[in-house]
């Protein structure tokens, strides 16, 4: 590994020992030097809560166990983000994050004496002293000759570089040139110092200006009392708040990824890039070592929905004592963007001024409250969430609402016998006129962006929908009699297969009937009929593979995965097949530079459309399918 065994856990204090600053008799200068040394040296810094606030605790001799002496309750005293220790730690941690955690940067001591220690980690120079407040005097140290030259260390100074002390109150006033082959003078005043390239200082200051502007905007947004936008963490502050249930999802098994197939995992599951699991133990979603996904289910009594004219996303809100409370499914930092920039709140107040809940209204399950509107998310995430409510929907004691994507799922709703319970706006957003309604109670699911990794599908809901579909008349999706090979085509869209006909002809040599199916709404029932008897389902990476949910138990799924030089997210169907207990086999297919748009590939929001079309290795795919029959 890159760290080569250097991942030590470094700490100054823990919950079983007296606070370090307490042992220093409150010497904050010495404390800051010790903190910088611990946070800068090789290993992982471990910080005890309250360290950033100079929490001391106190020795209580009447408590024989001394359990809580060193663990004060910070919420009683506030949380000061302008505190000097907080600001110092914030800067050091920012540099560590900027340098990828520093896990692969060697520590090199370049000066040491009985009072001063200077060491580097890549381009970062750390200078600490043990003088403290009582003994420090202004002095200087000389770093001689080539002590700062590169020694196999990533980013060491091989040419004259302007560096500044980021920990200084005015970093650009404590700068100097570090140049191999020349002496460098380091002025010591008792304060810890962390010298970084000048560009780091500029980048940090620009980021702080951006954050300050965002905080001001958030504060102004939060100050508006009517309508009051409540981030998820504040939902309970509204009168008669939503009823919320949080359920941790079990990890689902997934097929082993062949060593020659590169796949990018779900960025919401992988919270850090180090370490990366090798293929032979990367067998679960989310990966081992990452938090499990959580499903947040909620219901709100006397709830309303509003979608403004010209807007794409609606809001869920409640009226309490003539005041409007909007439920934002995200954090305080994101709600001004999600709600404030997407919903005209003034116009909304005017449109819903006289809106009331009909006394005879039925409860409503809202399927698109916190869901992206693509085929994959609607078919795999939103639609199955009606599984717990199927009996009520079929009996007419409950209604179903979607503000977008209803044409995609309408055929499935019809097969489930709940089409009459469903209602939608007159067209896909944006609408020409505002749309709104109120109901006695509204049920919804959240993907939980604020607190947990995003949940994209719920296995028990998928199983519930598949079970219900087996009881339908006509084509029986999820049937049990399997034969044949179904090739899910992407037509002429992005990531389409140019030699699809040649692939189908080759697959016919395996002695099974082969059907090429284009999963469009107008051909939905034909697709379901084909999938209901499939022994093998094949498709290039794309939302069309979401239709595997209509395939029978025990089907084999072969996904053709484009191998591209950018992080195309392609984890979806490996995870989905694992959740459905399907056999899954990915086939890597290299995409040539002329087969994708390099501009679209640079943007994470457009890279899924970057690949135009590509030619597959027919013999390789046929061989994989043959091994599964």
Structure notes:
This protein has 629 residues and is α/β, with parallel strands linked by helices. It has 15 helices and 28 strands. Strands 11, 12, 15, 16, 17, 18, 19, 20 and 21 form a nine-stranded mixed sheet that branches. It is globular, with a radius of gyration of 30 Å. 36% of the residues are buried.
Summarize the structure in short.
This protein is α/β, with parallel strands linked by helices.
Shape, please?
globular
Which structural class fits the helix and strand makeup? alpha/beta
Task: Report mean pLDDT, rounded to a whole number.
Answer: 87
Instruction: For the record, give the distance between the C-alpha atoms at the N and C termini, rounded to a whole number.
Output: 39 Å
Rg estimate, integer Å = 30 Å
The overall strand count is: 28
Residue runs with pLDDT of under 50 for 5 or more positions: 150-155
Total count of helical runs of at least 4 residues: 15
Helix content: 10-25%
- Major sheet: 9 strands, mixed
Quaternary form: single chain
Q: What is the beta-strand fraction?
A: 15-25%
């Amino acid at each position: 590994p890159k760290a080569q065994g250097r991942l030590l856990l470094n700490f100054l204090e823990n919950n079983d020992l007296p606070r370090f600053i307490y042992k220093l008799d409150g010497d904050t200068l010495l404390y800051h030097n010790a903190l910088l040394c611990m946070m800068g040296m090789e290993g992982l810094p471990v910080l005890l809560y309250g360290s950033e606030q100079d929490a001391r605790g106190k020795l209580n001799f009447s408590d024989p166990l001394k359990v809580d002496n060193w663990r004060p309750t910070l919420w009683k005293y506030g949380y000061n983000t302008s505190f000097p220790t907080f600001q110092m730690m914030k800067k050091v941690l920012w540099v560590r994050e900027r340098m990828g955690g520093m896990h692969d940067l060697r520590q090199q001591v370049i000066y040491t004496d009985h009072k001063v220690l200077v060491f580097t980690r890549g381009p970062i120079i750390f200078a600490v002293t043990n003088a403290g407040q009582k003994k420090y005097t202004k002095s200087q140290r000389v770093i001689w000759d080539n002590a700062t030259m590169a020694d196999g260390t990533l980013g060491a100074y091989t040419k004259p570089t302007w560096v500044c002390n980021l920990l200084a109150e005015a970093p650009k006033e404590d700068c100097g040139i570090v140049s191999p082959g020349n002496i460098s003078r380091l002025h010591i005043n008792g304060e810890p110092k962390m010298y970084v390239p000048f560009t780091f200082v500029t980048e940090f200051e620009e980021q702080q200006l951006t954050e300050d502007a965002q905080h001001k905007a958030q504060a102004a947004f939060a100050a508006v009392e009517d309508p009051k936008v409540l981030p998820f963490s504040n939902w309970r502050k509204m009168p008669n708040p939503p009823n919320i249930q949080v359920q941790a999802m079990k990890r689902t098994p997934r097929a082993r990824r062949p060593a020659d197939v590169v796949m990018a995992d779900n960025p919401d599951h992988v919270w850090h890039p180090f370490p990366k699991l090798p293929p032979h133990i990367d067998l679960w979603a989310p990966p081992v070592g990452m938090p499990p996904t959580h499903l947040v289910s909620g219901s709100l009594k006397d709830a309303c929905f509003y979608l403004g004219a010209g807007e794409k996303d609606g809001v869920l809100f409640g009226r309490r004592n003539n005041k409007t409370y909007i439920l934002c499914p995200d954090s305080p930092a994101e709600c001004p963007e999600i709600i404030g920039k997407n919903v005209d709140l003034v116009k909304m107040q005017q449109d819903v001024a006289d809106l009331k809940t009909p006394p005879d209204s039925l409860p409503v399950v809202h399927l698109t409250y916190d869901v992206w509107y693509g085929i994959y998310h609607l078919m795999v995430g939103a639609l199955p969430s009606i599984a717990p409510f199927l009996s009520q929907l079929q009996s007419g004691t409950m209604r179903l609402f979607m503000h977008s994507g209803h044409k995609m799922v309408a055929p499935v709703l019809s097969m489930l016998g709940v089409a009459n319970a469903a209602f939608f706006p007159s067209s896909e957003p944006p609408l020409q006129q505002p749309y709104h309604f109120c109901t006695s109670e509204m049920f919804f699911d959240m993907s939980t962006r604020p607190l947990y990794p995003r949940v994209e599908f719920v296995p028990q809901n998928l199983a519930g929908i598949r079970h219900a579909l087996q009881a339908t008349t006509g084509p029986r999706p999820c049937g049990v009699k399997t034969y044949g090979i179904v090739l899910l085509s992407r037509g002429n869209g992005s990531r389409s297969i140019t030699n699809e006909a040649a692939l189908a002809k080759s697959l016919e040599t395996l002695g099974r009937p082969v059907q090429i199916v284009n999963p469009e709404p107008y051909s939905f029932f034909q697709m379901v009929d084909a999938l209901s008897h499939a022994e093998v389902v094949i498709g290039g990476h794309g939302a069309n593979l979401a239709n595997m949910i209509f395939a029978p138990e025990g089907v084999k799924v072969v996904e053709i995965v484009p191998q591209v030089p950018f992080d195309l997210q392609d984890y979806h169907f490996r995870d989905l097949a694992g959740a459905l207990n399907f056999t899954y086999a990915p086939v890597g297919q290299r995409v040539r530079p002329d087969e994708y748009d390099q501009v679209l590939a640079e943007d994470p929001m457009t890279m899924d459309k970057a690949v135009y079309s590509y030619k597959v290795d027919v013999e390789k795919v046929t061989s994989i399918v043959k091994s599964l029959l």
